[in-house]
Structure formats: structure tokens, C-alpha cells
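Running this now, will post back.
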Amino acid sequence: MTLTAGVLAVQGDVSEHAAAISDAAETHGETADVVEIRQSGIVPDCDLLAIPGGESTTISRLLDREGIAPEVVDHVEAGKPVLATCAGLIVCSTDANDDRVDTLDLLDVSVERNAFGRQKDSFEAPLDVTGLDEPFHAVFIRAPVIDEVGDAEVLASWDDRPVAVRDGPVVGTSFHPELTGDSRIHDLAFFE
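Update: finished.
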């Protein structure tokens, strides 16, 4: 079976997400046809969707301007999976604690942007993630902190702070799983 996998190509690690999605699909005996999304009209044809990192205010502005935001909401309401990483997590949250970010209200969490520090404070850490047998080597770059969790399930924490959550078909991470060469987070988001 061939799946249509959309990667929001506004900013971020688009090719790395595409590779991780393809690897995860192959693990399940499936093929993923990855399409880059820069305009409206593509999301409705997608079986799954990745929203990469970048700058959350820019991403939210472009999602609104291009008419993609309501399509992403419809995608989730149809029960289709989304993986939102770093700035994608911020955009999908219910509260970004920043009026410049127009959130999609898809993850019942409140976040604080860049809470783990600036670029120079980036770090890597092994995470125990619910649903994975072995620790996941996570890469944190200007990472947001999930400071309040509503109905979302916490999948992983670092330093007693949630860094991965699931709310229905949406998985959000503070870290960048696409930078590791390990597709297990994409597998967890799209095929579990």
C-alpha cells in the first residue's frame, strides 16, 4: 500500500522528515509518497502529516495566509495522524504563551518557546519514550518546554518536564526526531 505523507515545507528539516517517514513506512511493509506542502489543497489528500520545526510565529502566519491551517484541523478531526516537532509542537498547542502565534488547538498543552535555552544551549539526551523498547536519542535545539498538560498523554519527560505528548492522532515533541537517523518516533506517531 502506498500512503501519501505530507510534510509542511514552510521551514525546518523537510527532507529529514521525509526520509524518516519513508523508513517508518518501510518497516511496516508500506510505501510513503512524500509531498511537500506550501499551499492549500494538498493536505486533504494526505494520509499522514508532519509539521517540522522552524520559527513558530512564521509557521503560524504562513499556515493562516496560505489557507493550510483549517485543512490541518480537518485532517486531525478525520482521525489522521500528525507529528509536530519543536516549533510544530508550539503551533499545534492550545496555548503558545505568545500572542504572535496563532495556535491550531490540536494538542491540549501549554508551551513556553525556547525554554531550554538558545541555540548555544542545544543538547542531546537519551529519553525513555512510552511505546519504545529502547531509549530514544533526542536532539533538543532551542526547544520549547511543555509547561502544562491537559488531556494529552505524556510520552516522555526530561528533567521532570514533558517533552513528548500524544493527544488523539497528534504526537508532539520538543525535540527533533528527524535529525537522528532513528525513525521510531515517526513510527510511533504514524503506525502505532
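The mean pLDDT is 93. More later if anyone needs it.
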